[in-house]
Specification:
This protein is 58% helix and 8% strand. The chain is α/β, with parallel strands linked by helices. Strands 4-3-5-2-6-1-7-8-9 form a 9-stranded mixed sheet, with helices on both faces. α10 crosses α21 (568-574) and α13 packs across α19. The longest helix is centred in the middle third of the chain and has 41 residues, at 279-319. The radius of gyration is 45 Å and the shape is rod-shaped. 35% of the residues are buried. Residues 517-609 form the GED domain. It holds the Pfam family GED. Its main location: cytoplasm.
């Protein structure tokens, strides 16, 4: 099962490389799902000495106050051959064989992140140690809990450390290694207190008791080690670390481990517990337990990773593609976005999306209603009819029918139809503009680029304005056509109609009487109604041809022509994506890469096993 711990090591390193180490983020973090052993203890609890005993090397910074100011992810790799050495994730090409240099690098790397202040940071340091004297194990050494700030630290440091420790141990996948000194009251142990708060049943807490050899004479730690003083689900483990005198004398870890074994074996109080005491046993126990936990979490990890990959891919698609670097790529990208907008606009007009039906409503309701509201009373009043016919006759009255009078009456009446015709053009123009605005809102890609959005809106509206001018000219031309050439067949039928019910025997000299003028007005009104019926159908055709059809065909043609003449820098200004979105896309892209790699690694291990 050694590959399982190696797997978690790889994934944790990848998480840190991508800045995904469990900090507050709206993005999913793989780190939180990975089983981790976090080492917790108060200052001077012997936490660092426990870690060094497990490793068998002096490698941790020492001193007064808060020495550990960043999480240290310690990955132990058992090797059968080769020289003991260490590697840092932030120095991938450098190998350390001198562990005093390892200690210095930990301190230096801490200062690089926090400055030479005594503040803390949540960014982990990754240290891998390869040795034949270790078990395969990964531990996270956290800053020591404290109750008071030292010189050079803010008063908030106490709470900051506590919050950092909690951010690790409150996660259900975290195994807590609570280190407490035996020469202090267990009830006041910082490690036990905070562990109890996040793991009240002790289901994922291992208790480690240090400084047993420093207890007052006549006292022992048997009640604690046997679980009577404070019960945990896992047995307590006692360790005897090197004393400061041993450290000063450079007593090596091999000798220290031997003395630790002898201590528990030879003392009568602890001899019955000797087989499960000491740092060697602690390392093996934790390694075995970590392997077991990782194995049990594999199915859940696979499910989480598959689900998260899908979520990240969906989010990445929603954010759109990254901006191209070269001018050609930028031009292509802009054209594709514009085509997406143009397609949505066409879908609105074609009924695939709502909105196009409003154009038909203008033709079917607004235009007929406007034509029906037209009042021809002024043009066809007795006075106006008499005036126009008389003026048209000139010095010689008409003999049979007042042809010129009819023409002038019809022309003056048909002019009133121009207003509804223009209103239809304007109404359709307004609808098309609304559809442009709606299509821009529905084009997801345009949301990324405010400048391009403004340019597309402007270009589309300018095109619609030009189409409106052309459409209005065509619609008014239809009215003018009806005025310029009268339908002869309509008037040829008049004598027949007169014979059927009229009286054509009036003298030419009494044709200006009221009855005659009323008949002329009625004939003109009848003809105008016929023309109105014709225009009711021809005006919509003209509007559709000049505005709707043209908008579908060439809404952005002029904009595309102008784009082709722009340089890369000008195109780049159109693709002015919000930096927040750019950063988010990069972050999601990196996390997607992480999860895909994790999926591949886990699948490989599962198939191997």
């Amino acid at each position: 099962m050694e590959t399982l711990i190696d797997l978690v090591n790889k994934l944790q390193k990848a998480c840190t490389a991508l800045g995904d180490f469990g900090d507050e983020s709206s993005l999913p973090t793989l780190w939180d799902a990975l089983p981790t052993i976090a080492v917790v203890g108060g200052q001077s609890s012997g936490k660092s000495s426990v870690l060094e005993s497990i490793v068998g090397k002096d490698f941790l910074p020492r001193g007064s106050g808060i020495v550990t100011r960043r999480p240290l992810v310690l990955q132990l790799h058992r090797v059968e051959e080769g020289r003991e050495h260490a590697e840092f994730a932030h120095l991938p090409r450098k190998t350390f064989t001198d562990f005093a240099a390892v200690r210095k690098e930990i301190a230096d790397e801490t200062d690089r992140e926090t400055g030479r202040t005594k503040q803390i940071s949540s960014v982990p340091i990754y240290l891998s140690i390869y040795s034949p004297n270790v078990v395969n194990l990964t531990l996270v050494d956290l800053p020591g809990l404290t109750k008071v700030a030292v010189d050079g630290q803010s008063d908030s440091i106490v709470k900051e450390i506590e919050n950092l420790v909690r951010s690790y141990i409150e996660k259900p996948n975290c195994i807590i290694l609570a280190v407490s000194p035996a020469n202090q009251d267990l009830a006041t142990s910082d490690a036990i207190q905070i562990s109890r708060e996040v793991d009240p049943k002790g289901e994922r807490t291992f208790g480690v008791l240090t400084k047993i050899d420093l207890m007052d004479q006549g006292t022992d730690a048997v009640d604690i080690l046997e679980g009577r003083s404070y019960r945990l689900n896992f047995p307590w483990i006692g360790v005897v670390n090197r004393s400061q005198a041993d450290i000063n004398k450079n007593v090596d870890m091999i000798s220290a481990r031997k003395r630790e074994r002898e201590y528990f074996t030879n003392l009568p109080e602890y001899s019955h517990l000797a087989n499960r005491m000491g740092s060697e046993h602690l390392g093996k126990l934790l390694s075995k337990h970590l392997e077991s936990v990782i194995k049990s979490r594999i199915p859940g990890l696979q499910s989480l990773i598959s689900r998260t990959i899908l979520d990240l891919e969906t989010e990445l698609n929603r954010l759109g593609r990254p901006i191209a670097v070269d001018a050609g790529g930028k031009l292509y990208m802009i054209m594709e976005i514009c085509r997406a907008f143009d397609q949505i606009f066409k879908e609105h007009l074609d009924g695939i999306r709502p909105g196009g039906e409003k154009v038909y409503a203008v033709f079917d309701n607004q235009l007929p209603a406007a034509l029906k509201r037209l009042q021809f009373d002024k043009q066809l009043s007795m006075e106006n009819v008499r005036k126009l016919i008389t003026e048209a006759d000139g010095y010689q009255p008409h003999l049979i029918a007042p042809e010129q009078g009819y023409r002038r009456l019809i022309e003056s009446t048909l002019i009133t139809i121009k207003s509804p015709a223009e209103a239809v053009v304007d109404a359709v123009h307004s609808i098309l503009k609304d559809l442009v605005r709606k299509s821009i809102k529905e084009t997801a890609e345009l949301k990324q680029y405010p400048s391009l959005k403004v340019e597309v809106m402007s270009a589309a509206c300018e095109s619609l304005d030009r189409m409106r001018i052309e459409s209005k000219r065509a619609a008014l031309q239809l009215v003018d056509m009806e005025s310029s050439y009268l339908t002869v067949d309509f008037f040829r039928k008049l004598p027949q109609d007169v014979e059927k019910g009229g009286n054509p025997t009036h003298s030419i000299f009494d044709r200006y009487n009221e009855a005659y003028l009323r008949r002329v007005g009625a004939i003109v009104l009848s003809y105008v109604h016929m023309v109105v019926g014709t225009l009711r159908h021809s005006i919509p055709k003209s509007v559709v041809y000049c505005q709707v059809r043209e908008a579908k065909r060439s809404l952005l043609d002029r904009f595309f022509t102008e784009l082709g003449a722009k340089e890369g820098k000008q195109l780049g200004k159109l693709l002015d994506e919000d930096p927040v979105i750019t950063q988010r896309r990069q972050n999601i892209g990196k996390r997607l890469e992480l999860y895909r790699a994790a999926q591949s690694e886990i699948d490989m291990v599962v198939w191997t096993k």
